[in-house]
Please model this.
Amino acid sequence: MNSSVNFADRLAETTKRKESVVVLGVDPQLDTSEAPGIPEDYTLTRFCCDIVEACAESAVAVKLQLAFFEARGIEGMHALSEVVAFSRRLGLITIADAKRADIGSTSDAYATAYLGRDRFGCDAVTVNPYLGSDALAPFFAKAREGHGIFVLVKTSNPSSGEFQDLKVEGGGALWEAVARRVDGWGAGFVGSSGLSQVGAVVGATYPAHARRARALMPRAVMLVPGYGAQGASAADAVAAARADGSGIVVNAGRTLMYAYRRRPDLDPALAAGEACEAMRLALNGALARRTPASG
Model:
């Protein structure tokens, strides 16, 4: 991991070189009454690493959903460190989907844990802006070292509008006010790509909001969840792209990790690799069909 290089520039270079905007969501689900989270004869580490390796040619980054590792205790956290290290060896950008923020030394500890040089350190992290600027300050300090920050702005879950769509003083929705702050926070972190290391999470399930978010955050890299299992199409997922098609990366977790459930003739890794490449091609096709007016 070369964190001294602007994160947004690294991501822009990687997406261009690999002709991909795909992010593999490493979301090893917990067991349910319908299906186990880990296939038979696999360990947690092996399952995750096999999926990462299978998708490495088609994806630009992995986004590790910490909840599924934390829920498994010591075994899960050990697996997390192994998957982070393995992904780095494959040249993939790593994103800790932590959604962290707190006050004072606690927030500093979170930033050190997930953007530091220890076992869980990644290239970027997701953060929650609800506590305000001082809670995010330790993460911005890490951005000065080259790391990326993705601030929750408009999320993909069905009830996101319960608070995010509330009208605020001066007009507009709360999420739009957050988007304006993200643009301001990111102004000092713009690289040669014209993109900022302070980016945003903007769900694919609300494409009209995504286009509005791009207008409010012209320099932000947008991490876009919601594609596939959550119902968003390829066209929905690229709605936040800039006019030249840049400025987005699109995440899929269950759609890729559990592709073998739809393809019982294939082993998990092969099914994931094929699904990841199909996603790459679908998103590239959707980007190619966009007109300049829609960007």
Notes: The mean pLDDT is 94. Strands lie at 22-26, 61-65, 93-100, 124-127, 148-154, 196-202, 220-224, 248-252. The CA atoms of residues 141 and 282 lie 37 Å apart.
